[in-house]
Structure formats: C-alpha cells, structure tokens
Amino acid sequence: MSYFFYKKQDTFLHRLDPRTKIVSLLLLFTIAAATREIYIQIVFMLSLIALFFASRSTGSLRRMGTLFGTIAFMTFILWLFFYDGRVKMFSAGPVVIYKGAFYFSALFALRFVNLLLSGLLFLSVASIEDFSDSLVLFGVPYGVAFTFSLSFRLVTVFATAGSAIVEAQKVRGNDPDRGGILSRIRSYVPLLIPLIINGIKKAEILTLALESKGFSPGNKINLKGKYKFTAYDALVICAMFALSAAAIAAALA
Known about the structure:
By secondary structure, this protein is mainly α. 69% of the residues lie in helices and 4% in strands.
C-alpha cells in the first residue's frame, strides 16, 4: 500500500517544472483564501476537481473524499454556531444563529476544502524529488532541502511500520480498532513502544547509509540541465498570477 499520492504520469501538470508547481500551489492558496464569494469558491472547487481528472489523479480524491467531506461538514457547523452577527435568526437557550451565518459558514467550509484540494493536487503531481529540487533551485541550502525531503520519506517509513505492527496484533487476537474511541486509544498506546524502537533502528541505518555515501550538509548538488523552464511554465505562472491578482482585487473592492 502506498502512503503517497504521487504517481508518475505523462500529463501536462506532471511535466511542469517543479518551481512552477510550487509557485502555482502558493497562488492557489492565495485564490482560495482571498475569494469572498461562494459561487466563485464553487467554480474554483470544480476547476480543481477537473485538474484532478486531467492529471489522472482521481485516485487521490477517492482516498481523501470522505475525510474532506467530513472536514467540510464540521467546519460548516463550527462557523454556523460561532458566527457573531447583529440580527438573530434562530435562538434556543444558549444556541443562537445569526442572520448571514449560513452564507458565512458555507464560504469558510468551501475555502478550507479548496485549500485542502490545492495541497492534494500538488502532492498528486509533484514527487518528493521535485519538491526538494525546487527548493534548491530557489536558493535554499541543500542540507535544508534534504531535511524536508527526508521528513516526507520518513512518513511512509513510520506509516508502513505502524501498519505492520497493527496487522501483527490483529493476527494475535488484539484488534486495536475494536470498541469505542477510548478503548481504541488505550489499545494503540502500547503499540507506540515498538513503533518508536523501529524508528530508532531506521534512523541508525539511515545514518550509516548517509555516512557510507559521504553525505554532508555542506555538499552541493548540481541540477544543471535536469529541469527546463519552458514557455509553457511561464504561461501557467502568468495565468496563476493574473487569477490571484483578480481574487485579491475583488476581495479589497
């Protein structure tokens, strides 16, 4: 089972320069955060979903669809009851819903989902190597970029180890997923010890592997010729800047 969303594909989004992908991600975040109209947020969300289909990354949507839907619902409920307006629309004891709360809550729920979709799209079309190389191309020291990439890789190491430990416990008759939420929390606590020990062993092996290959944070990596910033990349960035500028201008108007 893969714990990453990226799959190597030959699509126009996958072929973008990694610098274009990172800049586009930041501009997508800007558009989602700046937009104050629900219908624009809906159009933005549909556009992101269309990009998932265009990049053949709908599997990521299927994996995260339930979670994103739950987050959207909880965000809507949260802002619905905490919105502070001037005109009461509903009141029952301590529960008060003001006029405009539904619009405000729906806007924030859509905004949050669009932020999550933007990040998921980036993870679906950009590899860990793309991310670390783009940081180097932006002038970030190689040691820092390597640390970021290593942190992503360690996620799958711990996730795989944790999954193996849980499956081993189920074979022995101890199902951590059985019972209520408190019972499951108590069942997972003892599993942290073998997971931490496994992580320490992996760290020791990684240290030996890096030393054997002469790794040093001061090393310089040569990416000359590996990536090519094309006119298509420039067009994408210009379009994203134009959309984000329009979103900011509309928010300030």
